[in-house]
Amino acid sequence: MGFAKPEQIALRTVQFGVKKANLPLSAQLPLGFAAGAFISLGFLLAIRVSAGLPPEWEGFRSFLGAAVFPLGLILCLAAGGELLTGNMMAVPFACMAGRIPLRRVAANWLVITLSNFAGAIFVAYAFGHLAGMTEHGPYLAQMVALTEAKLEEPFLTALISGVGCNWLVSLAVWTAYGADDGAGVVLGIWFPTMAFVALGFQHVVANMFLIPAAIFAGQASWGEYAANFVPVFLGNAIGGCLFVAGLYRLAYRRKLREGESAEEQVRQQAKGSKEPAIREPQL
């Protein structure tokens, strides 16, 4: 199982961030919809496999749900998807390296937020509501308990929870970028993602599924969702931008400058040979 060194991951992340920021709208929208749906399917799976366990198994029930939830992020990176929380790390990292302007970061976040929301709402309504997968028996009880726990957190608590969540999720993405094969991608994603779920941290895209599913079941309101969305979005942005992109930018700024100079030399050589200047990193 091949794995890149941390400074090499930094160079790969810049390339991924540039690629994400420059995706055409025709690609961002379906990939964003897919990512929102993938995260929601992972959350739906977590509810379905954990809700039926007896109350005295609470610790194992939480772990089991956390263990299967990473399916969504694995699908995003292995099958293809544009997920807001991952983009909150990779796209700003490319901006910090001077490869894209700040307006590209804002535009990417806006488009991916809306398309992730569309994918999450689709799963919540089609599978949760119409198919009744979150509206009966222990599944309804589990969904309501999870929703209430998130909505009851005050603004500051939800914001800090969002920071912790995307610190771990962005590290999962960062680690996956360092893998050279599929097994490495899965392992790199699984541990940090499982950890954030088990710790109860708040993920803005996961909440796009959970809270609307509770709304469709008559257990929450859109006003409550809006009050939760703001601090969790801000916390996730801080976790990805500052605690991953910002820290590694400080640590590897010299290596990134060297990498940029090397890429410029390759571009100049490629102009003469008419061969591709940059080889995109592959997961």
Automatic annotation (TrEMBL):
Transmembrane segments: 29-51, 63-84, 105-127, 155-177, 189-217, 229-248
Keywords associated with the record: Membrane, Transmembrane, Transmembrane helix
InterPro entries in the cross-refs: Aquaporin-like, For/NO2_transpt
Subcellular location: Membrane
Bilayer topology term: Multi-pass membrane protein
PANTHER family per UniProt: FORMATE TRANSPORTER-RELATED (PTHR30520), FORMATE_NITRATE FAMILY TRANSPORTER (EUROFUNG) (PTHR30520:SF6)
UniProt similarity note: Belongs to the FNT transporter (TC 1.A.16) family.
Stated name of the protein: Formate transporter 1
Organism taxonomic ancestry: Bacteria, Bacillati, Bacillota, Bacilli, Bacillales
